[in-house]
Amino acid sequence: MKRLILVLMLLATPLLAVQPDEVLDDPVLEERARELSKGLRCLVCRNESIDESNASLARDLRILLRERLVEGDSDAEAIDFIVDRYGEYVLLNPDMRGANWLLWGAGPLMLLLAGGMGFVYLRGRSKASRQAEAPLSAEEEARLRDILNR
Amino acid sequence: MITEIGHFALILAFGVAIVQMLVPLIGAHKRWPGWMAVAEPAAGAQFALTALAFGALMYAFIRSDFSLALVVANSHSAKPMLYKISGTWGNHEGSMLLWVLIVTLFGAMAAWFGGNLPPTLRARVLSVQSAIAVAFFAFILFTSNPFDRMAIPPFDGRDLNPLLQDPGLAFHPPFLYLGYVGLSMAFSFAVAALIEGRVDAAWGRWVRPWTLAAWVFLTIGIALGSWWAYYELGWGGFWFWDPVENASFMPWLLAAALLHSAIVVEKRESLKSWTILLAILAFGFSLIGTFIVRSGLLTSVHAFANDPERGVFILMILAFFMGGALILFTLRAGAMEARGVFGLVSRESALLVNNLLLAVACFVVFVGTMWPLVAEMFFDRKLSVGPPFFNAAFTPFMVALGLILPIGSTMPWKRARIMRAAWPLRYAFVLALAVAGLAYAMQSGRSLLGPMGMFLGAWLVAGVVVELAQRAAWDWRRVGRLPRADWGKATAHAGLGVTMAGVAGLTAWAVDDIRVAQIDAPFDVAGYTLTLNDVQEVQGPNYLSTMADITLSQGGSVIAELKPEKRFYPVAQMPTTEAAIDYNLARDVYVVIGDQQQGGGWTVRTYIKPMTNWIWIGCALMALGGVLSLTDRRFRVAAGARKTRAQAVPAE
């Protein structure tokens, strides 16, 4: 029984994300690979980058990415190479092509819109102040005196 | 037997909720005191019955009653007691029961402590709160009944997901739900006020403690979840921008906005319709969160009970409450005119900018979370929106918020001058610049993220100190006598600064190292020396563990013995990693043990994570600030007023 459990344990053991044998000898190249892998999605995982993932597909992608970098690809070329094969889904950082400008523009546009509305509201409030600060009428003056002298 | 009693109590609670939804609402409309008075005992009964049902389910988990399908699927007799208890809400059905229990708890609290509310408003609030409960009772009873029995009970259960068997996560859901559902109170008050057609300063004062409490619970819940992810998932991330995390973060942002705008309603009778809208949206985002987690619409690490039928049901609940409330809002919002007048530069406008930044930041998170769905449905593009997007699109709003916060919070109401408010803060500004400069000089990289975060942290904390000193008229003896609300505000704002500094420090300056470590061969990581002494197989209560023994030392002196583990849970057939962390205020040393290598030695990952604990200390400060504010005298004065009123009633 114990042996069986041990066998199961080895089968299901969590592989650590980046394995020592994947690490490139050139530290500059390795640093680039780590940065790039943080922006690439592990396709079989739930919202994990290949840098974090334990899945074997992520390992394959990490090795592929490093191969491309060793071949002398620039960052953009290496990413394009992977996107060509695995699709846009692999990018954790969506590009700005096509309808994606809506995604990237959503925040700034909303800020402008809401800021504009807020400004109009604020100006309305500060204009209202002039009316509200109009002097008291004679009747109000009399009433105020009445209350104060009571 | 107890299970059947629980099931029956749940059905009864459903019935009581329907009565409480209808009778007081009609009573308030017709001004019938008897009908309105139904709400109070009904709310108490509803809570008692739901608590009975929840207690029955918990009893079944504690006793490992494997005749219940839910217990079989989520428990095991060998599981430690704490996780048997937390197993009650570690699954879809049980967590929904906890959800509705908290809905009824808040309803009962509003009934018990709402004595100073006008009777029609109170009847309407309780009726709306009960309508929410009705929807979720129906959801539980018709689609996810926790009390389903097994025809043939098995000998043992299938165990709780091992990742969830952790003290941090045991209490993460209850806090989160207290927060989510706490916002239902703000929602009920908003809808009741819309029906009533009146929003005034008193309304702002009643809504604020509920919102503040909800926000405090959300803060604690989110921090616990983030802390858990940090030490449990094995690579030391604290925030993943996962759809489900976003689902809890969006209500948090809106609740923060709401509790600031409610101040404006309370003190200045302005921003009324916006505050109402915010209260509706904040709870709406809580419902969206529930929908996202349970529908399987968006894949996430929190995969739990993905069932389209349930998703559709929650979507209907969401559509009903949001649609209804927003229609009511458009019909009635015009009636709420602002009374306060103030200049373009004033505390009011500063709070408006706060709301603007928080709400737009929430909108960005929302668009980012939903975009993959939208792109697939309308543009036929299957894409991902991950952390790089959120870091880029969300962070600027928080930076802006941090920059204006100290100035805005020292501004006077009505009319202010920026220079006059900012001038006393010159000390804070200079200090913050110095801290940022120091950070820039000490770091090796050229990234501005670290210095920027240090600047914001120092600026916020020092700004708080200046503000407190100003409130006490620069007399240190008076600082201690400031009202709790001032202390609460100061603590929470300082907490935000501490968290910002922590996030920036960790993100900018973390160091990691991956290597094959040989037994007894020391290796160096960023000035620390680690030695792998031994690796052993250890038997835990319901798991097997591969435990390493690593000595951490610096300059020849031993700092700590670290014991990272790899665990295997045979029942659930799942492995987990247990990182070993040496905590301290300046940095965490985070060690994970990996596989044994064929050529000898073990894979070891070491991370030096600077300032990590600041993130959670900051969250704790924010929550503490909320609690301090809640215990302020003003709210206790309201409690006193309630007592005198309660005595006056029989005399009528």
Characterise this structure.
Chain B: It is found in: Cell inner membrane. Chain B: Belongs to the CcmF/CycK/Ccl1/NrfE/CcsA family. Chain B: InterPro entries: CcmF_C, Cyt_c_assembly, Cyt_c_biogenesis, Cyt_c_biogenesis_CcmF. The complex is a heterodimer of chains A (150) and B (652). The termini of chain A are far apart. Chain A is mainly alpha-helical. The N terminus of chain A is likely disordered. Chain A is built from six helices and no strands. In chain A, 63% of the residues lie in helices and 0% in strands. Chain B has 652 residues and is α+β, with helices and mostly antiparallel strands. Chain B has three domains: 165 residues, no CATH class; 210 residues, no CATH class; 102 residues, Tick-borne Encephalitis virus Glycoprotein, domain 1 (Sandwich). Helices cover 64% and strands 11% of the residues of chain B. Chain B is built from 22 helices and ten strands. In chain B, the strands form two sheets. In chain B, strands 2, 3, 4, 5, 6 and 7 form a six-stranded antiparallel sheet that branches. A four-stranded antiparallel sheet of chain B has the order 1-10-9-8. Chain B is globular. At the A-B interface, helix 1 and helix 5 of A face helix 14, helix 15, strand 1, strand 7 and strand 9 of B.
